[in-house]
Design goal:
- The protein has two domains: 63 residues, Arc Repressor Mutant, subunit A (Orthogonal Bundle), CATH 1.10.10; 146 residues, Tetracycline Repressor, domain 2, CATH 1.10.357.
- The chain contains nine helices and no strands.
- The chain is mainly alpha-helical.
- Helix 1 packs across helix 2, helix 5 packs parallel to helix 7 and helix 5 packs antiparallel against helix 8.
- This is TetR/AcrR family transcriptional regulator.
Length: 214
């Protein structure tokens, strides 16, 4: 093979990879939008049309709707982890609220498939890593004196869970209602001298709640 042919072949492969990556990104964005508007009942044909790709391209990448949802859920948790990691670099005491705020926006943008986000599709290692990062953010906030010392990592997890509930329930009627709800949560978290008389949820209970295992 001539040198020129090899160079052209490499350039062609790179172009194809870029095109494939671009199609994937467009499909996932369209799916999130379609599910947000119509719920999980949105069809694959609707998603292909919104993504500007042919049905064959969509089905070649994602053979079923379940495969598409599974990818959205995986990306959803990957981004939550990245948001928590970025929050750890904030000045002492700011990271926890920064994470909860950005997580709220992320949940709101993912409203259409949130019912599947904490099912069996959620990889256990992602959930555990996110919990470890969140525990670190809570510890930093407590050491900085901006969070009640009685709070536990399960309290933070349930705060995120409650945001999900507000986002899902309020829907398009009050799409920003979760922000007010988070304001109330953070006011409670900052109440350093307030006694919390009830026991926190245990990690075991949290696992059963978030996985729906009863």
């Amino acid at each position: 093979m001539a040198v020129g042919d090899d160079t052209r072949n490499r350039a062609t492969r790179q172009t194809l990879r870029r095109d494939a990556a671009g199609n994937r990104e467009r499909i996932l964005k369209a799916a999130a939008l379609a599910f947000g508007e119509r719920g999980l009942a949105a069809s694959m044909e609707d998603i292909a049309r919104m993504a500007g790709v042919g049905p064959a391209t969509l089905y070649r990448r994602f053979p079923t709707k379940d495969a598409l949802v599974a990818t959205l859920v995986s990306d959803f948790h990957n981004k939550l982890v990245r948001l928590a990691e970025e929050a750890t670099n904030r000045p002492p005491g700011e990271g926890l609220e920064q994470f909860l705020r950005t997580a709220g926006w992320h949940l709101a943008a993912s409203r259409g498939f949130l019912p599947r986000a904490w099912t069996e599709l959620a990889r256990r290692e992602h959930v555990r890593h996110l919990r470890d990062l969140t525990a670190g953010l809570l510890r930093q906030a407590q050491e900085a004196g901006v969070a009640n010392d009685q709070l536990t990592v399960t309290d933070v997890a349930l705060a995120i869970w409650s945001l999900r509930g507000v986002i899902e329930t309020a829907g398009t009627i009050a799409p920003d209602a979760w922000q007010r709800h988070l304001d109330v949560i953070m006011a409670g978290f900052r109440a350093a001298n307030t006694d919390l008389p009830h026991r926190p949820v245990t990690l075991g209970q949290l696992e059963r709640i978030t996985t729906g295992r009863g």
